[in-house]
Write a structure and sequence with these properties.
Layout: E1 2-4, E2 7-9, H1 16-19, E3 21-24, H2 29-41, E4 45-48, H3 55-63, H4 70-84, E5 93-99, H5 109-119, E6 127-131, E7 136-137, H6 145-168, H7 177-192, H8 201-213, E8 223-229, H9 231-235, H10 243-249, E9 252-256, H11 259-277, H12 281-308, H13 317-323, H14 337-349, E10 354-360, H15 364-380, E11 385-391, H16 397-411
Parallel strand pairs: 3-4, 3-5, 5-6, 8-9, 8-10, 10-11
Antiparallel strand pairs: 1-2, 6-7
Helix pairs in contact: 2-6, 2-7, 3-4, 6-7, 6-8, 6-12, 8-12, 11-12, 13-14, 14-15
C-alpha cells in the first residue's frame, strides 16, 4: 500500500472490474449517459449519480476545505453522499473521477477525495482515475485506444442532442416533447454501441434532426443567451443552480457550446504547447491525428444540421481558434483559458450579444479570462450584454437570479 499525503492509496485493480461498481459524479446528463455506455462496453460496471439534493453541498463542506473550488466540493460531496446513502455495498464499490491535468485545482481532486473517504472511515474504497490530458487510466482502470474514438463520436451525438434540445424547449407547444426525443435517442445510441450502427454518424444525425423537426413549436422568437464559463459550473445543474432551466423560464433561448469543442481545445493546447516547448514526437502525432478526427466529426455534425435546415449549427472549431485573436495568446490554457474568451467573441459574431459567464468564486484562471476580458470585449462590441455570475456555498441564489434578471432586462 502506497502513501499519498499520509492517506492510504487503494488501487482499483483488474480483478475489481468483475466485482466493483464505479460511481461517477454527474456533470452532463446526456453526455455522461453515452460515456457510461462506452465504459460498460469496456467491461466495467458503472453508475452515474443523479442526486441533486442540498445535502450534497453540506457533505462537501464537511469534507473539503472551503478555500477549495466549488466544483471539487460538489463532486466530492456527491460521492461521499452516495457512499453514506446505504444504497451501495461498500465492499464492492469504487469511485471514478477524471482529472484535467495542468494547473487547475481539479488536478488535486483525487487527493482531496482520498482524504475525504479516509476521514469517513471508508479508506478501503478504491479510486479509479482517467486523465483527460493524456487519455490514460490509472491502475486497473484501462480502456482500449479505440474507445477514445468512441468517446469523440459520443460527443458528436451528445452535443447534437443538447444543442437542438436547447433550440426546441423554449418553443415547444407540448411541454416535455423535446425531452422525449432526447430520452429516445440516448437509449437508442447506447444500444447501438454494441454494434457498428454507432459509427453511422450521418445517418443517425439525420434521424435525430428529423425527430426534433416533428416537434410542434410556436413561431415567436425568444432572446438568445449564450453561456460560457468553467466547465463544471457551465454544464452541471447541481453546480449552477439550474441555470438553463431558470433562463428558459424567463423567456430565453440557451446557446451553449459543446463538449467536443472543449475536447478540441485541450488537444489544440497540447499541440500549441509542443510547438513552443517541444515534447515527444509520439504525443504530437497522436494529438494531431485525434484533433483531425474530431474536427472531421464536427464538420459532419454541422453539415447534417445545415442539410436539415430547421436548426442553427455551431461554428467549426477553426473559427473558435481565430476568435481570440487580439485578445489572448493560445498559450493561455489554465482553466478554460483562451477558449472562454473566444466563445464570448464567437457568440457576438453570431448575433448572440447576451452572455452569462459563470465560474466558481475564486477560480483565478477563469476570473482572468472571463471577468478580466469583459471590458476589452465590450470596448470592441458596445452592444455586448455580459454578466458574470459566481457560484460557491455561500452565494445567494436570489443574488444570482437578480444579476441574471438585470442582464435579461438590459437585453429587452
Amino acid at each position: 500500500m502506497n502513501e499519498d499525503h499520509n492517506y492510504p492509496v487503494v488501487e482499483f485493480t483488474q480483478e475489481m472490474k468483475e466485482t466493483h461498481t464505479l460511481l461517477v459524479p454527474m456533470m452532463l446528463p446526456i453526455h455522461f449517459a453515452l460515456v457510461a455506455g462506452i465504459v460498460r462496453n469496456e467491461g466495467y460496471k458503472v453508475e452515474v449519480l443523479e442526486t441533486t439534493h442540498k445535502a450534497i453541498a453540506e457533505e462537501g463542506l464537511r469534507n473539503v476545505h472551503n478555500d477549495t473550488c466549488y466544483p471539487a466540493l460538489l463532486v466530492i460531496g456527491q460521492l461521499i453522499d452516495a457512499l453514506k446513502s446505504g444504497k451501495y455495498d461498500l465492499e464492492k464499490t469504487a469511485l471514478f473521477i477524471t482529472q484535467t491535468g495542468g494547473g487547475c485545482r481539479a488536478s488535486n481532486y483525487v487527493s482531496l477525495l482520498r482524504k475525504a473517504i479516509n476521514k469517513n472511515g471508508m479508506g478501503h474504497i478504491p479510486i479509479a482515475t482517467f486523465n483527460i490530458s493524456n487519455a490514460v487510466g490509472s491502475g486497473g482502470f484501462q480502456i482500449r485506444k479505440t474507445a477514445i474514438a468512441k468517446f469523440v463520436i459520443s460527443f458528436v451525438y451528445s452535443d447534437l442532442l443538447m444543442r437542438i434540445y436547447n433550440q426546441c424547449i423554449p418553443y415547444e407547444k407540448e411541454k416535455g416533447s423535446s425531452q422525449i426525443v432526447v430520452d429516445k435517442w440516448v437509449a437508442e445510441i447506447v444500444e447501438q454501441m454494441k454494434s457498428t450502427k454507432f459509427l453511422k454518424i450521418k445517418k443517425n444525425c439525420k434521424k435525430i434532426l428529423a425527430d426534433f423537426s416533428k416537434i410542434e413549436r410556436v413561431e415567436n422568437k425568444k432572446m438568445k443567451v449564450g453561456i460560457v464559463g468553467e466547465i463544471y459550473i457551465k454544464y452541471s445543474p447541481l453546480g449552477n443552480n439550474g441555470l438553463e432551466e431558470y433562463l428558459v423560464s424567463q423567456g430565453a433561448e440557451i446557446i451553449n457550446s459543446g463538449v467536443l469543442e472543449f475536447f478540441m481545445y485541450r488537444l489544440y493546447s497540447m499541440i500549441h504547447e509542443g510547438k513552443i516547448y517541444g515534447g515527444s514526437l509520439k504525443r504530437k502525432i497522436i494529438s494531431r491525428l485525434v484533433m483531425k478526427f474530431a474536427a472531421k466529426k464536427q464538420r459532419d455534425l454541422i453539415r447534417a444540421i445545415n442539410k436539415n435546415g430547421n436548426f442553427e449549427p455551431p461554428n467549426e472549431f477553426r473559427h473558435t481558434i481565430a476568435a481570440c485573436k487580439g485578445y489572448l495568446d493560445h498559450g493561455v490554457k489554465m482553466g478554460e483559458g483562451w477558449l472562454l474568451t473566444a466563445e464570448m467573441v464567437e457568440f457576438i459574431h453570431s448575433g448572440v450579444n447576451n452572455i452569462v459567464a459563470v465560474q466558481p468564486f475564486g477560480c483565478l484562471p477563469n476570473h482572468i479570462v472571463a471577468k478580466g476580458m469583459n471590458r476589452k470585449i465590450k470596448d470592441n462590441f458596445p452592444n455586448a450584454n455580459i454578466v458574470a455570475v459566481d457560484y460557491d456555498p455561500g452565494s445567494s441564489i436570489i443574488n444570482q437570479e437578480n444579476r441574471l434578471r438585470l442582464m435579461l432586462a438590459n437585453a429587452k
